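Need tokens for this chain, all 456 residues.
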Amino acid sequence: MKKIHVIGGGLAGPEAALQAASFGCEVVLSEMRPLRSTEAHQTADFAELVCSNSLKSESENTAPWLLKQEMRRAGSFLLRAADASAVPAGHALAVDRVEFSRRVAELIAAHPKIEVRREEVMRLDHSDGETITVLASGPLTSSPLAAELQQLTGEEQLAFYDSISPIVDASTIDMERVYFAARWDKGTADYINCPFTKEEYEAFLDALTAAETVEAKSWEALPANGAATSAPVTMNYFEGCLPIEETARRGRDTLRFGPMKPAGLTNPKTGRWPYAVVQLRQENLRADSYNLVGFQNHLKFGEQARVLRMIPGLEHATFLRYGQIHRNTYIHAPSLLTETLQLRAHPGILIAGQLSGVEGYTESIASGLLAGRYAAALACGLQPTPAPRISANGSLTHYITHAEHKKFQPANITFDLLPPLEEDLRKKIRDKKERHKIQCERALKAWDAWLAATRR
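Here are the structure tokens for all 456 residues:
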């Protein structure tokens, strides 16, 4: 049996390592932190959640729910850790970051088949034929490893900018000005809502769009060959993760139909929806800190302190962390990867996590789950069987490996990625929720069959 080398201790890497080890494979898990950190990480912990603490919806028959249900049925180790470290978040799965990382570290340390190496990997094993490599080094892959990847693939790396939302000390929130509610009363009322009048919103919008932004650093435009650049940096934002000041510049009401959408959030003090709202989500089990949902930004810290304190209820808030935007690099998966996440030119190397072109915590873990299972098959001398196209996992992988080359961007799991129902069934069933329910049932049935067929 060949050995498996997993590179990266974020979300995809530990899941891949644990999956492969559970099939009896010898695994080396390499992580460069703390020897070398990144511009976004704050710790050397496995599975550090850099941005928000949410793994998205747990509402039945939604696309994120389906993806997680498939992962649970496949024995996802990180999802088990997430469930065990969950904090109240309405109909979403949000976790205590520290507890989540601690549980993942315990799982890795307890597995006899996994050897952890704290080292910076600069070369990929692709010629000895004795090692299967899972590259899950993430959106801030180090320059030498990025250069190595470019040399192997012959492709220019693509880059967009990912985000970190601000976090506020719960004890400094003015609870007289805010209220707890879940949108449309779905789940429990775990979100703190900061309501705006029209006048407050307009003043906030003016301050936000006039605030001074951070000048992009040269490392954020680092080309794949690892060389630094002195040229001006162009911020190539991912549409699904725009900073709030960029969203605000697209129109006076854009925020009110985006991260500040008030619909379904009735204020019990007025009996009405506010004009706009900022939602705060619990960060940890102690409930002593909350993050500002969807409030990633690229403003200078002093500007953030000034502008964010214009949010009702946060006038005297203490911010434990300000928002940031950082570089996020991924490969051009449609031209490079097979449906089993192998490099076409180097099938002994698999790419997992955000580096492969999936977007989001849950999607990254899911990618690691598949990569670990595929690597285990390869290590045993078998050709891995792709996840079924009809499943959420299979559809996500199908997208990144078959997307239109010129328009490829990272993707979260949505029903748009799953195969649609047959035309006659679509005409018969008009209700979208009922359609989604049928898609979920089909996906889970196909997924269960695939799991049964790929057990070794």
